[in-house]
Amino acid sequence: MNQPELLRKRLRALVRGKGVVLPGAFNALTARLIQKAGFKGVYISGAGLNNGAGYPDIGLLTLTEFAAMARYITRAVDLPCVCDADTGFGEAVNVSRCVAELEQAGLAGIHIEDQVFPKRCGHLSGKQLIPTEQMVRKIKTAVLSRKDRNFLIIARTDARSAEDFGKAVERARAYAAAGADVIFAEALKTKEEFAVFARKVKTPLLANMTEFGVSPLLNSKELFELGYKIVIYPMGAFRTMMKACEGFYDGLREAGTQAALVGKMQTREELYELLDYDSYAKLDEKAYGGFRGKNK
Predict the structure, then answer these.
(1) If we measure between CA atoms, which residue out of 234, 241, 240, 242 comes closest to residue 24?
(2) Cα–Cα distance measured from residue 130 to residue 149, given in angstroms and rounded to the nearest whole number
(3) Which CATH code fits 4-234?
(4) In 3D, which of 51, 126, 59 has the Cα closest to residue 86?
């Protein structure tokens, strides 16, 4: 459906310009909702992929699984998609294959973090980091391994909580010098920290506005004014969906019917529109003179 090379150029232009908001998708249909809402890009959260598979966000899914899930999403929309690649699925040599697989999946960029493996959620305590030099090798390998120079390599540092703010700045500068296109400082704690970090690190920056974490929920306009170029909302839709599903199951159990909940549901027509159902019907009609796969 899309043309990855053009989408990567579009994303890089947005990063060089005023910036871009990337809401989180965890499957193809949520990505289509993001496109329908008028956003200019999609973020694919590692937490969303892992949690959706029933795992905590500690790096249990494989690169092959990540690439397959990402491919469903990139094929579903005409928007540039950026994917969380955790720690790069290994050491520097593994990062090379990580970049190759995820670039082939149609992504516009990935971010790699400097935690040890197995990783922890970025807003939990107890994180440990690999040495700066080891992360620098990963970034250099990622840059050398991409085939499209517009494929964004985003370096994430968890040093703010694992070490301190000063170390986060120090690592960010080293990662930028190694060739990272964008720097992602996880778990900054105040608006002032976001502002100071932007003054000290001149590489384009990514801000994570995840809920229930240690960072304040700043408005994307505020962050753009501070100098950030990408703002992600990784798990908001996932959390909203899970709470809504919980309410449906509780309501069904208590009432014995879903009748009172129908008004809160996506209609069949809305779902079919999102799926582009008619295009399949038209294709089948051309091939067979009638659509044999109609749903009831």
Answers:
(1) 234
(2) 26
(3) 3.20.20.60
(4) 59
Q: What whole-number distance in Å separates Cα of residue 238 and Cα of residue 53?
A: 12
pLDDT at 239: 97
Structure tokens, 274: 């999102």
Catalytic residues: 43, 57, 84, 86, 111, 113, 121, 156, 186, 208
| Higher-confidence position of 125 and 101 | 101
Written as one letter, the residue type at 59 is G
Confidence of residue 121 (pLDDT cuts 50, 70, 90): confident
Nearest Cα to Cα of residue 230 among 192, 196, 193, 181: 181
Which sequence spans correspond to the domains of the chain?
4-234, 242-288
User: Whole-prediction pTM value?
Assistant: 0.93
Nearest to 66 by CA among 6, 36, 111: 111
